[in-house]
Amino acid sequence: MPPRRSRLHLPRPALALAGASVLACGLAACADDPSLGADTAAVIGGEPTAPGEFPGVGALVIEFGGQTMAGCTGTLIAPDAVLTAAHCIDPVLSGGVVPGFTLAVDTTPGNFATVPGASVHPHESFTFDVEITEGLGTFYDIGVLRLAQPITEVAPVPLPRADQAAALTVDLELDIVGYGRTSNDTDDIGVLHDARTRLISLTATELQVGMGLPQPQNCHGDSGGPALADLGDGQRRTVGVVSRSFAGSECTQGGVHTRVDAYLSWIHGQVPTGIPCGSGLAEPCDEPDPEDPDTGGGCCSTGGGRGPAGASAALLALAVAAPLLRRRRRTC
Question: Is the CA virtual torsion 258, 204, 76, 142 positive or negative?
Fold first, then answer.
């Protein structure tokens, strides 16, 4: 039997922007539709993240109704660049509004420090008008938010190096982090949670992360957030970006992440300077001279391309609030 296919839906989008649009859409799919995107939730099966535990992970935020609200999750990959999902920043949903970024672990008070966004760069091949299968596929749900000023209080989170692809294997332990729902029984979002789960399956462009309870998994509001792994060098690297629920489930069968190493060339094209040495395609860091503490370190970045490194990549994510958008399909 051929795989079931459907048009891409954007269920329960995250933040209402400009009245009728949203900042992002959620991880899980619409009720009975295996499409990309879903509503927002924090990590299901996770624990509240302690300040400083995942210092480069934060929330994309907007001003709405006199309040600062968190929508998607993102990861600082350079002092002025945040890696997230394309659907979180695509103008179709954002209405052209550029979100800000905060590293606050609790965004519910609404009075946290925010760095303004300068520009958004969803992958140019990303589109909501696409047919998908219930499993992993080839989409382009990856994007970069450039900030108006650099964040220097924390170090950027490293990207995987191109030579580490073989370390991404089934059963690899992953840390998932996000501001989404913590269970299917609540719509509350905005507090950073994290959990340890496993890589279930993978293709050249996507990862299935977690299998659902009792394993932790992402849910609505975690869109754009990272899956982090030690690929053998002792560093926690961003290997995945939350895109959608697996098999169109409502946060019950694991999540689908865009595979970051498939898009290294594209990412560096959006962030030509500032990605630290040893991260992604940036040159390896110099070995420090024990007799000269000023040697070593340094930052560098290499140029980019338009598509995934070696293959195409992934698509949608999780978001937060209300059924707002319909593009050639029913509203979720």
Answer: negative
